[in-house]
Amino acid sequence: MDRKLLYEGKAKRIYSIPDKPGMYIQEFKDDATAFNGLKKEQIKNKGVLNASISTTIFRYLMQHGIPTHFVEKLSDTEMLVKKVKIVQVEVVCRNIAAGSLVKRYGFKEGTVMKQPIVEYYFKSDELGDPLFTEEHVFALELATADEMNLIKELTLKINGLLLKFFSERKLKLVDFKLEFGRDDGGNIILADEISPDTCRLWDSETNKKLDKDRFRFDLGGVEEAYEEINKRLS
Ligand code: UDP
Q: Is residue 11 within 6 Å of ligand 1 at its C-beta?
C-alpha cells in the first residue's frame, strides 16, 4: 500500500495513505523509551508483540460497544486505523497502587483502590506531560466539557471491560494509559494502542510484573514478559 510517513513517535510510526484519505497505517516499532526519553533501547520483537496484543484488545473492546480507530490488522507490525486528530490529553486509570501513585501520594505498592482513579496528563513532550485537571484542559481549549465527560465515561467502561478480560487470563490490570481522538465527523473514539507499554499487568497469583516496568527498572526478561502476555491473550 502506497504511504507517506506523517509522524514518528517513540514506539510507533503513523503513515497517511494517498488511496485511502480517511485512514492511517499505525506501525509498531521495537524501540522502547522510559523516563521521558532518557532511557532508550530496543526490545526484540516488541513491534510484532504489541501489534498483536493491541489488535486483540481493540477487537474485544469494539465487540463490547467501545468506538475505536481500529479497522484491521495489515501485517505483523501494522494496523489500518481510522484517521483521527489526537486529543492532547493522556488519560490514566488506576486500580492498584504503582508508579507515580506510590511516588507522589505515598500509597504502598499493590494497595487496591476502592474505586478507580482517573487522571489527566497534558500530552506535551516539551513540558514533560504534566498532571493537570479538567479546568486546565478547558483553559488550553484541548477538549470541551461534553467531550471530557464522554472521555471519562468511556475510560471507566473500558476499565470495567479490561479488568474482566485480563482477570480471565490470570492477570491483574494495575493501571493503564489511553488516548482518544476525533474522527472526521468530530466523534470521540479510542485511539493509539493498549499494550504492555501502556498498561501495568501483574500475574494474578505471583504478582510478577509482565509489562514495561521490566524495562524501566532493568528487571530482565522484557521480551519474555511481552510474549507471555501475547500468549495469554491469544
Ligand atoms: N503511561 C504511558 N505513557 C506515559 C505515562 C504513563 O503509557 O507517558 C502508563 C504507564 O505504563 C502506566 C500508567 O500509564 O501503566 C501509569 O503510569 P505512571 O503515571 O505511574 O507512570 P510512571 O511515571 O510510573 O512511569
A: no
Q: What is the DSSP letter of 144?
A: -
* Spatial separation of the C-alpha atoms in residues 57 and 69, rounded to whole Å: 12
pTM exceeds 0.90 for this model: yes
Question: Would you give the distance in Å from CA 213 to the centre of its chain?
Answer: 14
Alpha helices in 106-144 (DSSP H): 134-139
- The answer to whether the CB of 96 is under 6 A from ligand 1 is no
The alpha helices in the chain, defined as continuous H runs, are 46-63, 100-105, 134-139, 145-167, 213-216, 222-233
pLDDT interval class at 111 (50, 70, 90) = very high
Helix or strand (DSSP H, E) at 176? strand 171-182
- CB of 129 within 6 A of ligand 1: the answer is yes
Q: Residue 1 pLDDT > 90, yes or no?
A: no
pLDDT exceeds cutoff 90 at 40: yes
CB-based contact 68:55 (threshold 8 Å) = no
105 Cβ contact partners less than 8 Å away, ≥ 6 residues apart:
none
The alpha carbon of 32 is separated from its chain's Cα centroid by a whole number of angstroms, namely: 14
Segment holding 115, helix H or strand E: strand 112-122
Task: Mention every residue, 6+ apart, whose C-beta is less than 8 A from residue 164.
Answer: none
Compute the distance between CA of residue 139 and CA of residue 123 in angstroms, rounded to an integer: 15
Q: Rounded to whole angstroms, how far apart are CA atoms 9 and 71? A: 21
Whether residue 226 is predicted with pLDDT greater than 90 in this model: the reply is yes
